[in-house]
Design a protein that fits this description.
The structure is a single chain. By secondary structure, the protein is mainly alpha-helical. It folds into two domains: about 90 residues, Arc Repressor Mutant, subunit A, CATH 1.10.10.10; about 80 residues. Helices cover about 65% and strands about 10% of the residues. It is built from seven helices and three strands; from the N terminus they run H-E-H-H-E-E-H-H-H-H. A three-stranded antiparallel β-sheet has the order 1-3-2. The relative contact order is 0.10. It holds the Pfam family PadR. This is PadR family transcriptional regulator.
């Protein structure tokens, strides 16, 4: 769903070809989405088959492969609004693969438990530090929309919560409560 929403939303702004979509998604959404390059072309083909997107033109620059320029249809605009409203109203439950490892914590020696949780804490602190610098860099780019600040803030709150939780788990291990 997020790939469709991203493509339709970007095509709503202006006609684009596949590589432009990929570049925009990587440059401005890459920190908070996991849209794979291959999925963009698959989605474009599917959206075209469904009549939500149409090929506007095929361009070819000298010595380069041809590229198809896509634009949104009226049905595509309706689908975009529907997906957008759905994304705002749907509550996604988040599952953490790490919780399975935590469930089997007792299978590791105490030394390993402490080593791994301290490593996770260190990595999470490094992520939080990186976020601050990266946000500053991204927000200095005039092409980045103001809403990016809210997206960075969302991520920062989650990373801080993870950090606090990891400290709690470390304390539990150190006190033999887990």
């Amino acid at each position: 769903m997020s790939t469709r929403l991203a493509i339709l939303g970007l095509l709503k702004e202006r006609p684009l070809y596949g590589y432009e979509l990929k570049s925009i998604i990587e440059q401005f959404m890459g920190d908070w989405t996991s849209i794979a390059f291959g999925s963009i072309y698959f989605a474009l083909r599917k959206l075209t088959e469904e009549g939500l997107v149409r090929e506007l033109a095929v361009e070819q620059e000298k010595g380069r492969p041809s590229r198809r320029v896509y634009e949104l249809t009226d049905d595509g605009k309706d689908e975009f609004r529907s997906l957008l409203r759905d994304a705002w109203t749907r509550e996604d439950r988040v599952y953490y693969p790490f919780d399975i490892a935590l469930f089997f914590l007792k299978e590791l020696s105490r030394e390993e438990q402490l080593k791994f949780i301290r490593k996770r804490l260190e990595d999470t602190r490094r992520t939080l530090d990186y976020l601050g610098g990266h946000e500053k860099e991204m927000r200095s780019d005039p092409r980045v929309p103001p809403v990016a600040g809210a997206i960075f803030s969302h991520t920062r709150h989650h990373v801080r919560a993870e950090l606090a939780w990891l400290e709690e788990v470390l304390a539990g291990i150190e006190l033999d409560r887990l």
